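Limitations
The structure tokens in this dataset are predictions for the assembled complex, not deposited experimental models. Users should treat interface geometry with appropriate caution, especially where small molecules or nucleic acid strands are included. An illustrative entry is reproduced here so readers can see what is and is not provided.
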Amino acid sequence: MTDLPHDPPRRSHARVAGKMVCLAFAMFGFGYLMVPLYDIICDITGLNGKTGRLSIAEAQATQTEIVAEDRKVIVEFVASINQGGSWIFKPMEKTMTVTPGKMYHASYYAENLSDNAVVAQATPSVTPFAAAKYFNKTECFCFTRQAFEPKGSKDMPLTFIIDPDLPINVDRVTLSYTFFRSPNQS
Amino acid sequence: MSSNDVTHHAPDDHAHHDHDEHGPAPGLMRWVTTTNHKDIGTLYLWFSLIMFFIGGAMALVIRAELFQPGIQIVDPMFFNSMTTLHAIVMIFGVVMPAFVGLANWMIPMMIGAPDMALPRLNNWSFWIMPFAFLIMLSTLFMDSGGPAGGWTLYPPLVLQMGDSFAFVIFAIHFMGISSVMGSINIVATIFNMRPPGMTFMKMPMFVWTWLITAYLLIATIPVFAGAVTMLLTDRYFGTSFFSAAGGGDPVMFQHIFWFFGHPEVYILILPAFGIVSSIIPTFARKELFGYDSMVYATASIAFLSFIVWAHHMFTTGMPLAGELFFMFSTMMISVPTGVKVFNWVATMWRGAMTFETPMLFAIGFVIMFTVGGLSGLMLAITPADIQYHDTYFVVAHFHYVLVPGAIYSLMAATYYWLPKWTGNMYDEKLGKMHFWISTIFVNVLFFPMHFVGLAGMPRRIPDYSLQFADWNMIATIGAFGFGFSQLMFVYIIVKCVRGGEKATGEVWEGARGLEWTVPSPAPYHTFETAPVIEPSTVTR
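Predicted assembly:
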């Protein structure tokens, strides 16, 4: 019969537990870090249909690199309204035939059918996803919130340029906007 | 279940008790103030048994409604609450606390430690749980009803529930805090409380699987806590993490949620692997085949579980590269899992096998868990998953890995260690009956779900098309049979606690490991002096 007492722990409990608490807090932080990471990854890969955004100068730089003057791409415009708000929201033209590398203007029309002033936000999505990062916008009503008077309406402009590097197998790009009523109405 | 009777002597030299003995405090306050790992283990196990019947009753409401097409018994909103709460109760209230209870009871005894490293924290992490579930279940009695958007809490749907939403989120926070505290305790115990000679590679598989599970919990539960906190601030404090109107994205929630959610499913199964790896060698009377590969397989599964999450989201629209990555990484998990299944089979190969109740449940686990694993492999195939997604095929898959998987391992563990806990043998005849009745009904319950799922029946809907009627009726019969046969389980446990044939210290002829070197019932304090562990000592 031996009578060995338990050796004092080789490491203190507080140290191990402290490290684990730090890990738990770090992972809580990581959960929040996934929010900016998600946006960055979507931007880089064009995942989730997030479109590119260029300044006018950058767009003009792209414009000089036109490589395929005879290539035509059909752009389709789609509009939908989130949770059936009382709106009219539609593209002014349903499709356009464009040449990659040239800048084009399009617009959407929105009308507030309610008797209240509302603020709305449009979110874009491009399909196929592979095309998303080649679809660049220099000006878009989706960059800012749009305010509407009661029964107010407006044309909302959009300027875009398709990068000539657009994969050759893509000949049709669909740009879809969903119109959301902004949650924080004053 | 613990006993004051500590006058026995250990059956061998590895444990002895020649110091001042003191038992538990008398009265009910014993259970409130206890810091003893066995008491807390017992509390966790009783808690999860009670929650098992609450979650099971919810499942029976679901199955009763689905007995026939049409809406007969409950209104659809309540049905949705039932599917949501059934999942939350079974995951966070049954399987997780039961594994923590077993960890509390067995890990110190398996590694030769006198108690858990942080006994007060241990008491606290248990007592948070009943209050968390009281808050969670109280939402059913509030005006706006219980959570009804599914346990995955996807926005924007979940943000549309009434003000009981805040209670649900806080209850989840409390459960998370409890799990993280319990895991910290387990890590500290395994790192610091092993006596000299108990090296990492001498630890039983159950201890190894729990060490890895504890890391998974500490790494993922806080991510979940972050995700539900974002939901809370989106709802009440004007943030727009998941609201597209404010520049957020609801799909991002799914990424964050499943970054937690996929490791979570391994949290629910790794300790089960450990239990089965303890039981099969005992009744095959052979050492566990391929112990080292079991350890590495467990670690690989844990690692892979962090890089497969988006296989839950194949239908959200992902680039081809993403679909391929998540498909292949998911399929890769079947390699270490296959290693485990083959090791269990190899352990039984040419063993002197006997089929006591724990062994029956363990073998049932191996076979039926593998059925669930194979349907999981089918779901991993991206193009096929687009058809299977959100159908009853998915329901069949995860119930096969969780009911005859995780729950069977818990029943196996209960029968296996019950004589050690109570000092009495359970009723073997009733135990075997419980196994066979459960196994028949569990297959009647879940197997037809494969068929209706492949035929396109969607999950989480209270009504269905007529062509699914026959299989649903059969599944409901299986559900009631399985549910009510669990009353046998309670009866057998209560009968065993109250008395029965006395168990020896070793209990099972082929038992291996330190927990069998102390008397049965295990004294209130064990291994207060460290056992001597020679390289030749059998500890696993």
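Some entries come with short summary sentences. For this one: The domain at 32-517 of chain B is CATH 1.20.210.10 (Cytochrome C Oxidase; Chain A).
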